[in-house]
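Carbamoyl phosphate synthase small chain
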Amino acid sequence: MKGYLVLENGHRFSGELIGAVRRGYGEVVFHTGMTGYQEILTDPSYANQIVVMTYPLIGNYGINAEDFEAKKPWLTGFITSDACSKPSHNASEKTLHTYLEEQGIVGLTGVDTRSLVRMIRQHGSLKGYIVSGAEIEMVDGSFTFPDLPRDLVKKVTTPVITQHTAEGEHHVVLLDFGAKGNIANSLAAHGCRVTVVPATTSLEIIRALQPDGIMLSNGPGDPQDNLDLLPTIRALGEEFPVFGICLGHQLIGLAYGAKTHKMKFGHRGSNHPVKDLRTGKVHITSQNHGYTVDDATLPSVLEVTHVNVNDGTVEGVRHRTLPVFSVQYHPEAAPGPEDARELFVEFTTQMNERKGHRLVYAT
């Protein structure tokens, strides 16, 4: 069935509809990774977004039960140049087309994604619709582009406290702002027992769980929508080692007085070079964010530890006196493949040091 992407700047891109036959509306963003489309589809950070894949062939290894980042997709549309309908992989259980249809997500393939991405890079992220050709004719080409929903963290967070891993040397409480599943898996691989809690969990409940450390996850939307969470984050930093990833990084910045701003078209891909200013090493990173911490507003208590090699934006900070640190990129995605392992080692080292101090005090 003929379909279109209709953008708020008046441009249209044609293609063929796949997946669910329905209208999709959201912020149109692009991802530059060659693989990982299943993880992208189920990353809660893409809530209310239509994702354009720049690599021309998507779906060639199908969909399997092991590579989901969340139980369901949160994006509102998926666009490719070519969507493979006959995948070839021993783990494949279904096609991309079938998965989109099952999950109620509309897709558009056969699109000139090179031209579309150039437009987004020029104009910035744009709101858009994926619609059928019949709907174009029915509304006579007239579309309105309302503001997108906000406060998305409350929408995607887990509703209840869950135990992800029952055993481990360190107990980590993971505040779920829209956490990718591999964050908890990576913590478990580094010897952590992980308890996942809703984003709005109170300081008292977190204390009662007796964690050794706190992980602040990734998540969707504008970090400024989560100002109500900042007092808890500041209080946690006074008591526990804290490690933030992506949105968690931005909220640490806000919690200590920095500001954030929306980027023109964000960073979404799996090969972004990031320099660790402490060692001079450049790491290849996976990223998915449309906002950044404004380095000009950083308070004196925060030190920049990482910067993006391409545009100089802040990619990591640490508190000068507290065991609190964060990175803008996704170390759990490991495109390096082990470039970011040292961050989890740093976190476990901080938890070990905290346990040592507690033992000395008890003695």
